[in-house]
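In this section we walk through a basic example: taking a raw amino acid sequence and producing a predicted 3D structure, encoded as discrete structure tokens. The instruction is simple. Fold the sequence below.
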Amino acid sequence: MNARSDNTAAALKLVQASMIRLVKLRGLSITRASGATGQLAARVTINMHRGLKKMVALAATRDRSASNASECRVMLREDT
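The resulting token sequence is shown next.
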């Protein structure tokens, strides 16, 4: 990973990335994601919306290269 990817990953909060991963990538409903995380359903929706909005803004400010897709994957990577 380069420094640019590290900065992009840091821009998205962990909770936002987690909600996007659960709902958009794994297909959980808002209700199930809420139960899995202990967050209210409204908070799940807010975190997911804010994370997606931030990803779009980051992609829009960067040059339109193939690295944008990889940077989005870095933002959503699972911590292992």
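Looking at the output, two observations stand out. The chain has one domain: 3-75. Confidence is low (pLDDT under 50) at residues 1-6. In the next section we compare this with other chains.
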